[in-house]
Amino acid sequence: MDRVLEDRRYLIPFRTALLPHVFTDVLVIGTGVAGQRAALAASAHGDVIVVAKGDLKQTNTYHAQGGVAAVMDPDDSVDAHVQDTLVAGADLCDEPVVRQVVSEAAARMAELRDWGMRFDTDGDRLAMGREGGHNAHRILHADGDATGRELSVTLDRTVRANANIRLFDDCFVLDLITSEDDSPRCLGVMTHHPKHGLQVIWAKATILASGGAGQVFRESTNPTVATGDGLAIAYRAGVELADMAFMQFHPTTLYIAGAARALITEAVRGEGAYLIDSNGERFMAGKHELAELAPRDIVSREILNQMARTGHTHVFLDCRHLGAEYFSKRFPGIQQMLGRFGLDPATDPIPIHPSAHYLIGGIRTDETGRTSLPGLYACGEVAATGLHGANRLASNSLLEGLVYGEICGRHCVEMFDEAGHSHVKIVSNVPLSGRSELDLNDVRSSLRSVMWRHVGIERDGKHLAQVCEMFDFWARYTLDKIFDSREGWEVQNMLLVGSLMTAAALWRNESRGTHYRTDCPKTQDAFHLHDIWQRGHREPRTYCVR
Q1: Among residues 354, 377, 397, which one ends one of the domains?
Q2: pTM value?
């Protein structure tokens, strides 16, 4: 990939004198939980602009069903939550980060309640569920299975009531703008709006909270906007990315031929649902001490193996023994969604299949959300904070977004005293390509299919090397082009992110957490490391787990 990218700094050519300029103290990219919380924290220091590629309903946060993991029960403890996170993370979590995030959970929950978020209750106490990998009931939820919606609406309402925050909707971020001196820093972004065209937004501090990259895979729980744009713009700007081999696959998404994949929260298994195969047999019992509540990587692989053994395209989630009244009360959203397909969980096993769900790797940050580029911060799914290790513990992601969103928004004030930057000239030298152009829809479909087949739940070195060659071919005929549409820019970003995931998976000659190599099935001490991927470096650098 670097052969194509080395001379290419920006996606499109432009003349800065002809573009409108906007100035702000803090720019936040993304309106999921991390972006909204970062904007609220940053608003205490000055003016904030939040740019959003889509609307609120297109964020992963809005569709989160399970809940927020938080120690709120006297019988539970921070130490227990930390331990569960470390175990799920397959010895690759940074323990100081884990303890920091888990320790702040109660304060963040109290904050949300002060802002009007309604958590479900059991009498006069908070109702707390249990999900895979947790050894205690510590998952707070809202409206049964609509926690993300309630969280998003609460934060959005609070953001819109803040006079220091402006929202720029339907705004696609093309690239970061950086200074070109001996001490480069992030100065803002170049954006595109379908009505207003190109625009430069200058910012003293920029916070990336743009979400994940699930759409790089054919089977995904993510909304269509999750094409890895934040990861790609950071990489092009020379920012360090880490742990890109680790993509978490959710074990249970509704499998209806021809229909979009719909998430079925892990909380359903937490309430006692079973996994059964086409013969009606439970297959997780005896495979792990937690059976259906084993960590997601283990459950996903066992589902895949059971499908291979039975020759079927899916397995089933069996909720019949939970009772119709209980299921409809606890999971009203899922009940309604299943009804649209003529399924009744009280009488019908639910056909399910794993899908790409959550990117664990991302932009490398320190404990305050700083990236390797001064002036740029990252939080939420786009960031690699060290919390999740090699496998995210269920419902830790919303908590991470809340905690690190607040941290980034609070610490970014440190950039306010830096020298002004309005005089910087933007230069974009993109030579016109002499190569033929590939069909964008074909490239997008092909890369998603090959990522699912060979960089999915199970991988092997031979096929990973072949996928790298495919990316090199697509790159030669796609990354050298100048596009003027979101579709083109998204495909370029997906190619870049997919290639980094594949290269990282090929480099990591072991199996750990979500990364499973059939040709290297054992965990290796030599890879008890985080790997760094940066533009201009052919091979990854590494750093130790803290």
Answers
A1: 354
A2: 0.91
